[in-house]
Amino acid sequence: CGVGIFRLTQSAGIAPPVEEVLSTTVVETEATEAPTEEPTEGRAVWEQAPVTINLVAGGDLNVTDKVVWSGQLSGEYNYTKTFMDVAPILSEADLAVLNFEGNVCGMPFGSATMSAPVEMIQALKAAGVDLLQMANSCSVRNGLIGLTTSLNNIRSAGIEPLGAFSSSAEFQKSKGYTIVTVSDIKIAFVAFTKGVGSLGMPAGSEDCVNLLYTDYFTNYRDVDEDGIKAVLKAAAAEEPDITIAMLHWGSEDNDTIYETQKDIVTLMQKNGVDVILGTHPHRVQQVDYDEQTGQLVAYSLGDFFGDASRSGTQYSILLDLEITKDYDTGITKVTNWDFVPIYTLAENECDGDRRVIRIENAMSAYELNFVDKVTASCYENLKFSLERINARILPPPETKK
User: Can you tell me whether residue 178 is helix, strand or coil?
Assistant: First the structure.
């Protein structure tokens, strides 16, 4: 009877219970050889795109009577307008650096002391400046107290000073360099000066300013190789992606590039420096760039802002460096560079305010007859300045024989 019932249910299409099927059905597969390649579907391939930042560097900001007066109004100081025209360039950069040739240590202000009001530093910060070189001719113009006060005021404004230290203990702690990280690019900054205004450093405080020469108060002939190497070795121990040196060197109002400067370039590049940004001559000088290695030397960026009373000091540049970190190769270097020509506008060349302007913008404003355009004579000066900047930075190639 049981066999008959089973046959009838099968022929009628009635399936056995699910539990029975699950418990009794066994699926067998044939053995196959191991695959010769790993499956690629679903496998994540991690590739990190290169990172690029822009660093903008200006030359000397010289603290003089005219520079201080440019922001004076009814006994107060405000330098917002002074830097307003170049603020877009400085603030849009990932980092902006200048050489501040002066102190910020209180009254009296101006040429006699080369001390500036704190409002000048605050205006620089508002315009986008991040770091100021303080290793220069004015480092100890007002003694160690003046240096210490200046460093404190600069840091209080949110700007990091470079190359100068309030004490030997501070130098030992910092080891003479500053590390800044931007968008995963680790930058080591070092700053050195040829001297400190023909003065000698106070005994026991010789390392409060990074110096390029051992005879820094006389002839500037003996390069301090040991001192330079010590700072660069300490910086290299941080394993930065790129190292930038700001150098106050050369001679004022002079286009000569000296042999000791070339020796310093070789020494620094052999010890890990990728970029050299020069100041002190107050005139724009040549820029040397090796596209393959990414090494760049700007011998002098000219005056960012000053009296503009000497020939060739009215015009200068803001140097724009493109720095790229390539994760595949592990190399970080300068991959491109450009510059913005700038000009120190005198009081009689526009509306009575001494300030920094972009040359090409000011020329366009004049040509379009803007209300606040520069004078006709200033326009001619701007044209001449633009020609001189291009001739100095981009000299014509050697004639092929």
Answer: strand
Largest CA distance in the chain: 126
- Does residue 108 have a cis bond before it (omega within 30 degrees)? yes
The pair of structure tokens assigned to 388 is: 């001189």
CA distance 59 to 278: 8
396 preceded by cis ω (within 30°)? no
Mapped onto helix, strand or coil, the DSSP state of residue 274 is coil
31 burial via Cβ count (<10 Å: 0-12, 13-18, 19+): exposed
Strand partners for 99: 60, 133
The Cα 161–Cα 149 span in angstroms is 12
As a whole number of angstroms, the distance between CA 90 and CA 290 comes to 25
Strand ranges across the sheet with 178-182: 178-182, 185-193, 242-248, 275-279, 296-298, 287-289
Q: Are strands 315-326 and 51-62 parallel, antiparallel or unpaired?
A: antiparallel
Q: What tokens does 343 get?
A: 């000009």
| Host H or E run for residue 176 | none
Gap between the Cα atoms of 64 and 37, Å rounded: 73
The pTM score is 0.87
Residues 132/57, Cβ–Cβ less than 8 Å: no
Q: Which residue has the tokens 């080891």?
A: 175
User: What is the DSSP secondary-structure string of 220-245?
Assistant: --SB-HHHHHHHHHHHHTT--SEEEE
Angle at 197 between CA 112 and CA 157, to 5 degrees: 65
Q: How many CB atoms lie within 10 A of CB 68?
A: 21
Three-state DSSP at 333 gives: strand
Q: What is the pLDDT along the chain (401 residues), one digit of tens a residue?
A: 555 544 544 544 444 444 443 333 344 444 444 455 555 555 555 689 999 999 999 999 999 999 999 999 888 999 999 999 999 999 999 999 999 999 999 999 999 999 999 999 999 999 999 999 999 999 999 999 999 999 999 999 999 999 999 999 999 999 999 999 999 999 999 999 999 999 999 888 999 999 999 999 999 999 999 999 999 999 999 999 999 999 999 999 989 999 999 999 999 999 999 999 999 999 999 999 999 999 999 999 999 999 998 989 999 999 999 999 999 999 999 999 999 999 999 999 998 899 999 999 999 999 999 988 999 999 999 999 999 999 999 876 553 33
